[in-house]
Every structure is written in C-alpha cells, then in structure tokens.
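Bit of a strange request maybe. I'm writing a small parser for structure token strings and I need a real example to test against, not something I typed by hand. Could someone generate the tokens for this chain?
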Amino acid sequence: MSNDNKIKENQMKTLYDRLKPEIKIALLESSRKYEYGPRQVIADLHRFERYSDLTIDTVRGLCVYGNINEWKWSNTEWKYGDEFFNN
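Reply from user aminoacidic:
Good idea to test on real output. This should exercise your parser:
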C-alpha cells in the first residue's frame, strides 16, 4: 500500500476505530457498569476523526473510563493524544 493510500485510509477512520485495543476494551466494560459517561465518550470517538476535536471533558472521560494512568505523560503526549490511538 502506498503512503498516499495509508494517509487516505487513516483520514477516514474515526477516533474510535483508531483507539488502542486495551482502551477500547476498558471503555466497553465501563459502559456496562455506568449508564452515561463511557457511552458519551464512545459516541464522541465515533463522531470525530481528529483528537483536537475532542473536548477536555471527553478526554478526561476517556482517561477515567478507559482505565488510563496518565500521570506520567509528557506535554507532547497530551497535546497529540498519541497514547490513546494507533497511528
């Protein structure tokens, strides 16, 4: 697959599609326990293709319901969301 095709394919994927598997599993498990919070996060991830489109509240919910230990992340990791998603 050429680089152009890879770029085009990644542009079409939602954030939910690109979410790391272990985070996706934790979100789905949380959605069975809690009615609103994780389901809203999942809905937002399905709506957007870019990390920068997420609200701070959605990112916070992603950390909480995705069972993420974000305390040691650098500013760059927060800025680009690389720890959440497969590229």
